Amino acid sequence: MRAAPLMCFRKSGERYTRHQAVENEIALALDMPHTVWCDQSWRIETLVHLIRLRRRDNDPHVLGILTYQFFERVKPIVNRWSRGYGPADSEEIQISVANELGDLLNEAPPSRTAEYLEVDAATVVKQATLRAIGPGRPKAQAFQSADRDEDGQYTPIVERLASEELNAEEHLLAEEEDEAGGALRYLNAVTDPRHREAFILRHIYNWPLKDGPDGVPTLCEKFKPVSERQIRNWINTAIEQMREAHGEES
Amino acid sequence: MNRVDQPTADDVILDLLIDGVEPTHENLVVAIAAYPQHRDALVAFFANLAVQTALKDEPAPSDCSVEQFANIGVSRVLVRRHEEPGQTSTDIDDTSGEIEIKSMPPRLSQLIRARGLTEDEVAVRVGLDAGLMMKLDRRRIVGRRPLEMFRRIAGEIRLPPAHVIASATGAPIPSSRGNLRKAKGPIKIETETFEVAINASTLSADLKAFWLRQLADSDEPAV
């Protein structure tokens, strides 16, 4: 038995198609009782299809377990695309992504985005995460620092890196990442996500600060109503913190 | 579903991601020129993608755990499914007026007994009473319910909390088929919120206060 073909189309006009391995897994699943689906290890895209199949009947048990497995599998993708925020913002982002993905799994008939979960779930999860970050994070009214601890105290990432909380393996992995990352590795030392974002957009992706050709996005527009001078100060602060991190390291 | 002439911002951004777009300012300007109606969404998307692409790994933030994340997602899926018309587990049989259960999913009581325990034993261990366990078993408690309660029950029966949430979510289950046969019209099964159920329970004042605090901190969406 085979899965029903997908109905949406790519930009190029080609119909969506599942990866052959996913088609094979779905065919395998359809040949076994659904009660044993939860005991298998499926690709994320296969899980999406099986979840949609189980939504149609009145047994929420298998549906709940398959859905749990789906969310377990996509959590690392969410973590990857929501770096650089403090605990409160991170938690808010993750709750928002979990809810949005839950809605996408439920869409009937599925939108292009929802159906693409069966083609390449990681891309849709990445999209949902970037959308959950939104244009105004960290929340300005709640902002003190990106790294408040439970008591609301400020703990810069550079200090956390130097703390004993990191185990040896994590430290080694971090060093490897550093070696690959060049100067950009110091971005994590910038304590305010807004300063870091302003630096990245200005110095890595060449966004104009204020005056660009008509209609071109600028940093002043992005961070409105913050002034041009303030954005310059943010970028200078970011550079200063990255220099300090470099100095501590060397 | 075919492509439409006026793609949504989601469609445009999904296509950009599929094409592996680099979040450069030049690409942003091109995208805005093609889809000026989605300017704000494109600016936010390119900025966020630029930052996330540039950031290297860092120590994991103390955000929500895998378990918490997954439980929120499971709750959302079950709630949405339950909200859809026709997605109830009970139907009225026109000829007999009897409520028939189309398909009985594993109930909380069944999961508990499968572990060789009784509902009363589990209730005492997790800080609930027999009445609350009965209401959970029959899906009579609706609205926000604390994740901590599901965690505790799941711990006792050694299953992921999602199993407990799934079992305790859905259309309410009638108490007695015999009583339903006597009813002349459709039966409305009474439900209540967690807060009402706690206040009506036989728990001590301390335990009631504990659960109401948990409810205030709860992140399980309403059902």
Short description:
The complex is a heterodimer of chains A (250) and B (223). Chain A has 250 residues and is mainly alpha-helical.
Detailed description of the structure:
The complex is a heterodimer of chains A (250) and B (223). Chain A is mostly helical and 250 residues long. Chain A has two domains: 20-133, no CATH class; 183-250. Helix content of chain A is 56%, strand content 0%. The longest helix of chain A is centred in the last third of the chain and has 22 residues, at 228-249. Chain A is elongated, with a radius of gyration of 22 Å. Chain B is 54% helix and 4% strand. Chain B has helices at 9-18, 25-34, 39-54, 66-83, 108-114, 119-126, 130-137, 147-157, 161-167, 177-182, 194-199, 205-217; strands at 90-92, 99-101, 141-142, 192-193. Chain B has a two-stranded antiparallel sheet with strand order 1-2. The chains are: A mainly alpha (250), B mainly alpha (223). Chains A and B meet through helix 3, helix 4, helix 5, helix 6 and helix 7 of A and helix 1, helix 2, helix 3, helix 4 and helix 9 of B.
List the helices and strands and how they pair.
The complex is a heterodimer of chains A (250) and B (223).
Chain A: H1 20-30, H2 44-54, H3 60-80, H4 87-106, H5 112-116, H6 121-133, H7 157-162, H8 168-181, H9 193-204, H10 219-222, H11 228-249
Helix pairs in contact in A: 1-2, 2-3, 3-6, 4-6, 9-11
Chain B: H1 9-18, H2 25-34, H3 39-54, H4 66-83, E1 90-92, E2 99-101, H5 108-114, H6 119-126, H7 130-137, E3 141-142, H8 147-157, H9 161-167, H10 177-182, E4 192-193, H11 194-199, H12 205-217
Parallel strand pairs in B: 3-4
Antiparallel strand pairs in B: 1-2
Keywords:
heterodimer, A: 250 residues, mainly alpha, 2 domains, 11 helices, 56% helix, B: 223 residues, two-stranded antiparallel sheet, 12 helices, 54% helix
- Write the element-wise H/E pattern of chain B from the N-terminal end onward: HHHHEEHHHEHHHEHH
From the helix content, strand content and strand pairing of chain B, which structural class follows? mainly alpha
Query: How many domains comprise the coordinates of chain A?
Result: 2
Taking the alpha carbons of the first and last residues of chain A, their distance comes to: 62 Å
